[in-house]
Amino acid sequence: MKRRVSFLFSLVLLLSLPAHVLAQAAATVVVSAPSSSNEVLKVNDMVRVMVYKEDDMTTEVRISKTGDIALPLLGNVHVAGETVAEATAEIHNRLDKDYIINPQVTMTIMEYAPQLVTVLGQVEHQGQVTIPPEGGLDLMGAIALAGGYSRTADPANITVVRVAGGHHQILKINAKKLANDSKSAMFMVQPGDTISVGESVW
After folding, report:
1. Ordered domains of the chain (ranges, CATH)
2. Whose CA is closest to 105, among 11, 34, 161?
3. Could you tell me the CA-to-CA distances from 148 to 75, 100, 122, 152, 156 in Å, in that order?
4. Which ranges in 69-137 belong to alpha helices (H)?
5. pLDDT class for 36, splitting at 50, 70, 90?
6. pLDDT of residue 10
7. How would residue 1 be classed by pLDDT, with cut points 50, 70 and 90?
């Protein structure tokens, strides 16, 4: 009973606060709880950096090939390979050291860098195809995005070159067998894969 009375009293007290105070409190909650804090930042991601009550610091920028973003006051800040939380802490610390006391910094990924796969050989349109943002593109899907097989393609002779741990892996895939065997697991492609569709010998 005491807990309930205490809760009701707190609720009444909260509702009696001026609107601008409530708005400020709500804004503070949003600022202190950024989403996707564990996501790792990558080159070509588009990010938005905001500092509470410092409108001039708001920046929307794409991460450069060197992994940096350019921010007011700070210049270049290296963020690629760091999580959103780590990059936010770095920006906070650098601002707090020389410019703004205890800045409330948030970073949001506005647009993810495209995850690309290269498809070469006997397909209608050689080049790069994009893995959907939600992920999950298999070999047959990648070939379909490249326009499908050419008339001289040999689906049983497909090579996938993949870089893993700094080493090149060469994988031989029989897509004809995969397509005809419902029990075979789909071969999922990964960003950076190079798929080569061989030519039929006849």
Report:
1. 34-111 (3.30.1950.10), 115-199 (3.10.560.10)
2. 34
3. 46, 56, 9, 11, 14
4. 84-98
5. low
6. 42
7. very low
